[in-house]
TrEMBL record:
Keywords: Cell outer membrane, Ion transport, Membrane, Receptor, Signal, TonB box, Transmembrane, Transmembrane beta strand, Transport. Belongs to the TonB-dependent receptor family. It is a multi-pass membrane protein. Residues 1-32 form the signal peptide. It is found in: Cell outer membrane. SUPFAM superfamilies: Porins. A motif (TonB box) lies at residues 39-45. This is TonB-dependent receptor. Residues 52-157 form the TonB-dependent receptor plug domain. Residues 182-597 form the TonB-dependent receptor-like beta-barrel domain. Pfam families: Plug, TonB_dep_Rec_b-barrel.
Amino acid sequence: MSSPVIRHAAATSLALAIPMAASMTVAAPAHAQTITPDSVIVTATRSPQLQRDVLSDIVTLGAEEIARSGAGSITDLLQRQRGIEISRNGGPGTNSSVFLRGANANQTVVLVDGVRIGSLSSGTASWSGIPLQAIDRVEIVYGPMSSLYGADAIGGVIQIFTKKGAGPQTVSASLGAGSDKTRKFDASIFGATAEDNSFSYALSAGKEKSDGFSATKPGSTSYNADDDGYDRVSTSGQFGFQVAKGHDLGLVFLNSRTDGQFDSGASRYDTRSQTKLSNIGVFSKNQLAANWHSTVQVAKAEDTSVSDTGVASAYSRIESKQTDATWQNDIRIGEDTLQVLFGHREEEVVSGTTPALGKVRKTDSYAGAYSLKRGAHLATFGLRADDSSQYGTKTTGSAGYGYRFSNALRASASYATSFRAPTFNELYYPGFGYENNKPEQGRNAEAGLHYDDGVTEFGASIYRNKLTDMLVTTTPCPDPARKGSCAYNVNHAMLEGVSLSASRRLGAFTVAGNADWQDPKDETTGKSLARRAKKHGNASVEYASGAVAAGAELQVSGNRFDDAANARRLGGYSLLNLYATWQFTRDWSVLARWNNVTDKNYEVARNYATPGAKFFAALRYGIK
């Protein structure tokens, strides 16, 4: 179902805020589960909404949980969440794929402050270029979201929110070191003017460096025993200005450069990849009437990815450029909300090494959504049309219903359609792309039950997502005018499963766990989709009292196959992680984390190495 790996430029990225009200409740730094009934969720409806009114299946991660994780990368953090699996070609600085509910990596939309990121050539996000220290919050929404976000939202949406300024000036910093000579430093300053909060600001900077470990293992044709490290520097910031009551302007930026090493055989040449993300955006929020809120966003993003193996013919440089403009209107009608959206997106690839990818695609979008509340009854409806210069017009829709049996217990059901646009590789890559390829399509039905009384939380979802016109590599190409293989719309797939989660506070202890039983299958071949297990889950227990918190986490995954033919099996694995934090003064704390305590040898991609037992410790100032 997946196209072959083609080295490409990764993610065009942009940090442009869908602004969140300064008074909104941020999910508490929960010890295992960060969602509370009074938390505000943005991604599920594109506007702030109390968690108790959200019908979608969601997970949120707060700033403290991210800081406490000691994760080496955002993919390490995501791997510990339910419904998510990852594949990575080595350590934190190498290419990674994230699979949401069994969907392909290019079937999930990834947003940074409201604007999607992703390579235009491969359709996947450049996870290695996203700095953890800039992240304030992560929201994960499971299930099709094309009626709100357009192309590629088949498996779900992952949105990353960077740090924002509010309240008195706050300074925070962190200095850490660990295994593989890993060292990290970051600092942030954020706040707002004391008089009226009319000006807000947030600035963050960070540097990470690690000697890493060998990206490949013996048996790989690319094997080289040398260590493959990475070096990342990043800056990010947001500025907001209140022109008048109900009228705000803002600017946001994110810059990141990651130099990573990878293996390309026994050559002594220092093979490297480099990813640069440089983004800037502006927004205007306006209260046009008592019940009418307007948000206009304009963003410019540039991404440059370079791969250098020392062989001139294999050198690759690809630039992805995106311009996004969106006008979103939220109109309150009693307790209901009508949302009307207009958008324009322009995608361009520039590549001197692969000129055939040098194309431009433009898309105009028109969407409407309605959220309804009638006592215990909740409902949502959405309809969207995306008119593309390349694939024509695609219309998607969604409908959801929920019933609150009590303030703590809610049931829901939904149906939605979705699609994924062909990537530039699938359209234009020499010897692989086919210009007549059309979008993949999905139809999903699901039902869920959620309980949360502030002490005990339980969630269950069952889903069935039918995919058609799947783009796969087929030989020979069905087009008689073509020779050899090509990407072509020939397969069907089914993503179905059950996802469970639960947590409970027992005095100073919090116990939590989640489990996924899924069957992501290519129905045309009858084979399981590559690198996705039928069973995976997580469990944790944490003790928190006063200034001290300590906990243990267990990650478990069943067998998977490394290839579409299901000829190469990847064994299951379980990983044990331990951590502890100590707030020894009001502003100072220390963190220690020991990942993969048993030094488990496992694979998420055949012949690519994964981290063994790793230790990390950090001294933190001012991080709450």
